[in-house]
Amino acid sequence: MSQQTSENVTRVAIGGLGAIGQSLAKSLVSGAVPGYKLTAVTARRHDKAAEFLTSIGSDAKVVTVDQLEPLADMVIECAPAEILCDIVEPFVKAGKMAVVLSAGALLFNLHLVETAARHGGVIHVPTGALIGLDTVIAAAQGKIHSVRMVTRKPPRGLVGAPHLVENNIQVEGLTEPLKVFDGNALDAARGFPANVNVVAALSLAGIGPENTFLEVWADPGVSRNIHSIIVDSDSAKFSMTTENLPSENPKTGKIVAQSVVALLKKMKAPLRVGT
């Protein structure tokens, strides 16, 4: 297993410095997450990353993806889905921890879970923008009959999604809601890799991606990312709705970074509330 630095401080690497990565870096550098130190980052533009780190007073190193693992005890992945494995695999192979935000990409790379199991690594998928994940996990200990989720997003948050491009679906200039997808979580992850990490997390917590269903609506009448979930199980039937403010990246909710901060704090807390 990995070694920590003195005074039980966990060294943290961030894979990706977009809106979420920058928010997490600020939290770590400001001391808002006691017991953790940002030591390394990777980003598409190293010069911009170095400039950002200097601006927040961080001495973390800017390195390539393959240089991250020796510099940290854990990695927070918040990068484009296509480089999930490059970021996560070296850490779990070394028996370290990876926090994965690209949950949709994880559905197609479940060998990472097997790698973690063989080497003593751990993969965490934070709750993120999804309410009630603990309840779904509890229900899954019995029998879940069905899970359906409906997502409504401002159209600009869906622009460029592969499913829209491949099916020539236009969402710019909409004057009324348009349903752009209805299918299972696995197909949703293929079609909306930057938009539906919430349903991927939901499927991993419950009855799997092939049996978890999602509708995606481009809705010009909303300014927030709205997720509604209906779950029917042998222990409870429940429904939940969240309205999340987008971050600087309209594809991602502002609460996602806060969810990671909450996860890090919980790992070191003497009182840990929630499943």
Task: List descriptors.
Rossmann fold; globular; single chain; 275 residues; 6-stranded parallel beta sheet; Dihydrodipicolinate Reductase, domain 2; 24% strand; alpha/beta
How would you describe what is shown here?
This protein is of the alpha/beta class. It contains ten helices and eleven strands. The strands form two sheets. A six-stranded parallel beta sheet has the order 3-2-1-4-5-6, with helices on both faces. The chain has a five-stranded mixed beta sheet with strand order 8-9-7-10-11.
Number of strands: 11
Q: How many DSSP helices?
A: 10
Which CATH architecture of the largest domain would you pick?
3-Layer(aba) Sandwich
Spans of at least 5 consecutive residues with low confidence = 1-5
Total tally of structural domains: 2
CATH superfamily of the largest domain: NAD(P)-binding Rossmann-like Domain
Radius of gyration (Å)? 19 Å
Walk across the major sheet and give the strand order. 3-2-1-4-5-6
Strand content: 15-25%
Distance between the termini: 25 Å
Question: Which descriptor suits the 3D outline?
Answer: globular
> Which sequence of SSEs, written as H and E, runs from N to C?
EHEHEEHEHHEHEHEHHEEEH
Q: Provide the residue-averaged pLDDT.
A: 92
CATH class assignment of the largest domain: Alpha Beta
Percent helix among the residues? Answer: 25-40%
Name the structural class: alpha/beta
Largest sheet: 6 strands, parallel
Q: Briefly note the CATH topology name of the largest domain.
A: Rossmann fold
